[in-house]
């Protein structure tokens, strides 16, 4: 959904945002949502330490996008939850 993509980019990728926990369990996040999260994590240093994506349909390609994004030096994520990983 467009609202999710806009929100992910605005909050997760904003260097002034101190968001540390983001729970998106069962929110309909798909591969597109994963791409938005990765883009936000790559664009700016993030304070995000916990991300819950359980009960979403990420597919293999979404998981691969997340894996690539989490390898970024700006990413400080310590906990990722997903029943599909």
Overall shape: it is globular
The profile of the biggest β sheet is: 3 strands, parallel
Q: Please report the distance between the alpha carbons of the first and last residues.
A: 22 Å
Derived from helix and strand composition plus strand pairing, the structural class reads alpha/beta
Number of domains as seen in the coordinates: 1
In CATH, the homologous superfamily goes by the name Ribonuclease Inhibitor
Give a written overview of the molecule.
InterPro entries: Leu-rich_rpt, LRR_dom_sf, NLR. Keywords: Leucine-rich repeat, Repeat. The chain has 85 residues and is an alpha/beta fold. The protein has one domain (2-81): Alpha-Beta Horseshoe (Leucine-rich repeat, LRR (right-handed beta-alpha superhelix)). The chain contains 3 helices and 3 strands; from the N terminus they run H-E-H-E-H-E. It has a 3-stranded parallel β-sheet, with no helix packed on it. The protein is globular. The mean pLDDT is 77.
């Amino acid at each position: 959904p467009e609202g999710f993509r806009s929100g992910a980019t605005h909050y997760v990728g904003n260097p002034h945002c101190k968001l540390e926990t983001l729970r998106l369990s069962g929110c309909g996040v798909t591969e597109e949502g994963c791409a938005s999260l990765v883009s936000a994590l790559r664009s700016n240093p993030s304070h995000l330490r916990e991300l819950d994506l359980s009960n979403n349909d990420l597919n293999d390609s979404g998981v691969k996008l997340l894996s690539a994004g989490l390898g970024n030096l700006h990413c400080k994520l310590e906990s990722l939850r997903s029943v599909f990983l």
